[in-house]
């Protein structure tokens, strides 16, 4: 492949592939009456057909017919039928492509339909436009799509593919060089010298400073914190924060940072200064943000561990002293009985007590009880003092390296942190009595403030840093240089841009709706539902209203036995396959592997590289790892796969590959039996992690091992269209919107299901504003609180016990514009939905925008629950959607058989590679099964009658016919192997 050629021969064929499916032919090649009138003016069937084919291909895909060696028979037949031409193949062969007739016809098409030839001036103009787009995103596929769109919009007859590739190559080169120059001219000589030192060969045969900087930390310990901050301080010494990014698009900057992170020091030494310093600086600037967040995460985990150990120590004390405490309680009861008896009989209480216990024994017992007694509020803070020396290993470093700010200049927490910095810097041993303490909860104050009003330095330090963690999580305090802990307003579209943005109406359908109009509309919706329930509640056999509670009967099973029998029969007909064979065949059908472009060159894998790519996907997705896969795969080595993993398995490639597979399934006829791609569900799959990792957490529900969760989004067609790795102990609701907004599929998701963990009032609100219908399966729905908006329940007193809450409409009216700005920021990608949702969830009523969004969510939740209880088909739809997600996770667990299902990846990017690779394997199996199940359905239909309504219950996620184990062979793909489907096992 020459330098300016960006695509392989196979990829060019894919871009120029002509449609053959009936619905695509109808969409692209149906002529109007006017078209047919023009076409039929030409003499003879040959000329009419030739002219019509030229016109059809210029319209779609855009090239003239001279660029195509063969025209598919279905296409010729479809066009010929409209013209009344018989024997279209023979007629088209007689069309004189190389003669004047062809060019006369093309000129006539240009003149009549205003199509234009692509000239040199157009080449330059389009290259300039592509360069502008490449400044934002220089991925080859992205630029090719823009190129095609511009050519179609401006009515050009497409130039040859090589011309288009050359334009894109030039645009990428010019844009890249311009970005490099924007950076390079800002570097001082001192910065250049220091960057060169990072990649200089080490004198002691150890890793370079560049390699050391990128190592990060997977542990959560004081030592890990200090190592992390050493790297952070090394990056800060470069003073890269002084570089201006105002002319660099954020998306392009992220691409530069990711690319810089993939190169080793030896590669940088070969680069030009412009490229070298730009890529290094971009990656280090991203690393700096990562390390700030990771450092604070370590601190958060240390505080959590401190509290956890305190609680466990208290529990242990209770267990150890349980017998003694029980004895003292019995003694107390006996003494109490003596006192009550003495008072009743007007006797001397002391004499009565001494009948049970001597005075000396009483005094001894009281002293022993003092040693057993715990604080009145039964806290554990007195038991954590022994851990202070352990935390002191990193606290001075935290105070020195992290900078905390607050929008409130009088924030007492930041004042206390500043005081601690001074105390540590000056080496003082005491804290003055005038230190800020008002922010401390009561439970801390009694340990921080001594009886003589002096300050206990150790407790003050730990209490302050514990409250600092709480205030950062609540959004009251930001950390400079952080990505996850900025001031709330910094995450949103700037206020000065919001008015113009809202008028442009590019993000939300609610942009021009006033708060009052919204409330009036939803109030009417609530009234309508209450009216319907009043008229029909007696007919709702599975719903009861008892004592102010909603009681829902459990849904009976939906899958009939006949469907299970049909599923078994169809799967028995499928050929027995190896997973490798399925991957290769699906790759041939869909070309999903072409999206794994090289990060540095943007070139897709060659035919020789594709087997290595598929082997790498399997190694990661099945969790057997590259080493084991190299041992089990002839002709594919560990080093080949390691190279593919480093340079081709990037996030953008994973998303596009998944989207290609999902779109392929959506186009299959059988998939329409399961759904139309408009509904989806999301659920988590827990994965144990057996190595130190910052995001690995304990959860008693899953046993003693730490782990993380793969949160997966599944369409109603059983396609897994997005996945991400999240903390096990984080509520799913934080991540529900990510998959709906970030997937790159053609699915039109309108309704989304989760279980209880996926729902909060704020999620209801944001889902509504972004145009999705949210439908969670809420556990204990009878306990859910419903809200009225404008006194609607007064007209329907039968529901006053159920709808007990009152929406704060004043909050909505006051902050409606800010809520819309928040929703638009999420829609436009200004801030990730999971990040902003985690911030909103932690505010605990202190953020007015969060409170207003919650009030909107309460309205939408109330309307949803009334719909949910009113319609059994709706409840079944939700239940069915969630079941599809559970089936997908079951296949995921079966595929992830390597290393006993335990993940051994420390870093989040590597964990994401595993999760995305697993998702691709799931979708590849779903795609293959869908195609062959459809073939089996046709075969069965010819053999015997069956109820085709049962097909909606057939899942494409079965794997009994697939062999996951054994030797893995990925021979160079031979097109002849895939010219037809394999025979069924019948």
UniProtKB/TrEMBL annotation:
Domain Tn3 transposase DDE: residue ranges: 581-968
GO biological process, one term: DNA transposition
Highest taxon of the lineage: Bacteria
GO MF annotations in UniProt: DNA binding; transposase activity
Residue ranges of domain DUF4158 in the record: 6-171
Pfam entry (one): DDE_Tnp_Tn3
InterPro entries: DUF4158 (IPR025296), Tn3-like_transpos (IPR047653), Tn3_Tnp_DDE_dom (IPR002513)
Signal sequence annotation: none
Alphabetical UniProt keywords: DNA recombination, DNA-binding, Transposition
Family affiliation: Belongs to the transposase 7 family.
Annotated NCBIfam families: transpos_Tn3
Protein name: Transposase
Organism: Listeria booriae
């Amino acid at each position: 492949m020459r330098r300016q050629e960006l695509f392989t021969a196979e990829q060019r064929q894919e871009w120029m592939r002509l449609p053959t499916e009936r619905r695509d032919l109808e969409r692209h090649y149906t002529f109007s009456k006017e078209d047919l009138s023009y076409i039929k003016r030409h003499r003879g069937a040959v000329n009419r057909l030739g002219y019509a084919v030229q016109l059809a291909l210029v319209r779609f895909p855009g090239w003239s017919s001279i660029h195509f060696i063969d025209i598919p028979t279905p296409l010729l037949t479809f066009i010929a039928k409209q013209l009344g031409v018989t024997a279209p193949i023979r007629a088209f062969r007689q069309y004189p492509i190389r003669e004047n007739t062809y060019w006369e016809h093309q000129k006539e098409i240009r003149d009549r339909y205003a199509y234009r030839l692509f000239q040199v001036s157009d080449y330059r103009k389009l290259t300039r436009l592509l360069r502008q787009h490449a400044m934002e995103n220089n991925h080859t596929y992205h630029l090719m799509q823009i190129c095609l769109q511009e050519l179609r919009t401006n009515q050009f007859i497409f130039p040859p593919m090589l011309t288009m590739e050359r334009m894109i190559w030039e645009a990428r080169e010019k844009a890249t060089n311009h970005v490099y120059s924007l950076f390079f001219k800002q570097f001082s000589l001192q910065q250049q010298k220091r960057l060169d030192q990072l990649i200089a060969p080490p004198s002691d045969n150890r890793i370079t400073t560049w390699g050391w900087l990128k190592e990060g930390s997977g542990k959560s310990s004081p030592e890990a914190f200090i190592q992390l901050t050493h790297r952070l301080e090394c990056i800060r010494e470069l003073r890269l924060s002084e570089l201006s990014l105002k002319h660099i698009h954020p998306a392009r900057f992220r691409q530069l940072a990711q690319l810089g992170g993939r190169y080793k020091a030896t590669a940088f030494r070969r680069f030009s200064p412009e490229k070298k310093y730009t890529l290094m600086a971009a990656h280090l600037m991203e690393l700096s943000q990562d390390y700030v967040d990771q450092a604070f995460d370590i601190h958060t985990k240390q505080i959590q561990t401190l509290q956890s150990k305190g609680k466990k120590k208290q529990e242990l004390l209770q267990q150890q002293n349980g017998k003694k405490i029980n004895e003292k309680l019995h003694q107390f009861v006996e003494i109490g009985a003596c006192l009550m008896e003495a008072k009743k009989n007007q006797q001397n209480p002391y004499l009565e007590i001494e009948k049970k216990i001597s005075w000396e024994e009483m005094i001894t017992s009281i002293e022993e009880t003092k040693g057993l007694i715990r604080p009145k509020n039964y806290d554990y803070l007195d038991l954590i003092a022994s851990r202070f020396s352990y935390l002191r290993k990193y606290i001075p470093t935290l105070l020195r390296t992290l900078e905390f700010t607050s929008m409130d200049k009088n924030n007492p927490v930041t004042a206390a942190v500043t005081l601690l910095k001074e105390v540590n810097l000056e080496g003082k041993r005491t804290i003055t009595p005038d230190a800020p303490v008002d922010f401390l909860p009561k439970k801390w104050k009694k340990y921080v403030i001594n009886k003589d009003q002096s300050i206990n330095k150790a407790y003050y330090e730990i209490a302050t840093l514990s409250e600092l963690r709480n205030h950062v999580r609540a959004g009251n305090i930001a950390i400079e240089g952080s990505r996850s802990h900025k001031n709330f307003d910094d995450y949103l579209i700037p206020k000065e841009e919001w008015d113009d943005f809202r008028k442009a109406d590019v993000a939300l359908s609610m942009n021009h709706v006033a708060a009052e109009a919204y409330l009036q509309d939803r109030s009417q919706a609530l009234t309508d539902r209450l009216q319907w329930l009043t008229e029909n509640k007696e007919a709702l056999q599975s719903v009861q209203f008892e004592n102010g509670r909603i009681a829902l009967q459990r849904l009976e099973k939906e899958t009939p036995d006949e469907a299970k029998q049909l599923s078994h029969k169809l799967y028995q007909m499928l050929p027995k396959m190896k997973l490798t064979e399925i991957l290769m065949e699906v790759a041939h059908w869909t070309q999903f592997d072409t999206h794994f472009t090289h990060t540095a060159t943007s070139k897709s894998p060659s035919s020789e590289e594709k087997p290595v790519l598929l082997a790498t996907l399997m190694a990661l997705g099945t969790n057997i790892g590259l080493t084991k896969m190299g041992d089990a795969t002839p002709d594919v080595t560990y080093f080949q796969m390691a190279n593919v993993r480093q340079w081709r398995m990037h996030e953008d490639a994973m998303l596009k590959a998944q989207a290609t597979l999902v779109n392929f399934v959506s186009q299959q006829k059988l998939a329409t039996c399961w759904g139309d791609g408009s509904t989806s569900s999301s659920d988590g799959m827990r994965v144990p992690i057996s190595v130190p990792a910052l995001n690995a957490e304990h959860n008693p529900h899953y046993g003693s091992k730490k782990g993380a969760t793969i949160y997966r989004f599944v369409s109603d067609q059983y396609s897994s269209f997005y996945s991400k790795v999240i903390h096990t102990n984080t509520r799913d609701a934080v991540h529900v919107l990510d998959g709906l907004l970030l997937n790159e599929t053609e699915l039109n998701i309108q309704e989304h299901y989760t279980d209880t963990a996926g729902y909060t009032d704020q999620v209801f609100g944001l889902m509504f504003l972004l145009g999705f219908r949210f439908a969670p399966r809420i556990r204990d729905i009878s306990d859910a609180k419903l809200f009225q908006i404008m006194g609607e329940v007064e007209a329907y007193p039968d529901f006053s016990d159920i709808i007990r809450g009152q929406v704060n409409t004043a909050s909505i009216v006051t902050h409606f514009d800010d809520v819309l700005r928040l929703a638009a920021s999420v829609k436009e990608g200004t801030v990730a939905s999971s990040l902003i949702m985690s911030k909103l969830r932690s505010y605990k009523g202190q953020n007015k925008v969060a409170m207003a969004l919650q009030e909107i969510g309460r309205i939408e939740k109330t309307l949803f629950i009334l719909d949910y209880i009113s319609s059994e088909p709706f409840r079944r739809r939700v239940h069915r959607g969630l079941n599809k997600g559970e089936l997908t996770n079951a296949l995921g667990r079966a595929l992830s058989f390597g290393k006993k299902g335990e993940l051994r990846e420390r870093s989040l990017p590597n964990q994401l590679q595993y999760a995305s690779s697993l998702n691709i394997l799931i979708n590849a199996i779903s795609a293959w099964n869908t195609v062959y199940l459809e073939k089996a359905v046709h075969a069965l239909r010819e053999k015997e009658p069956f109820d085709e309504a049962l097909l909606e219950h057939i899942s494409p996620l079965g794997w009994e016919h697939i062999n996951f184990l054994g030797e893995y062979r990925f021979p160079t793909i031979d097109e002849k192997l895939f010219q037809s489907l394999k025979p069924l096992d019948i």
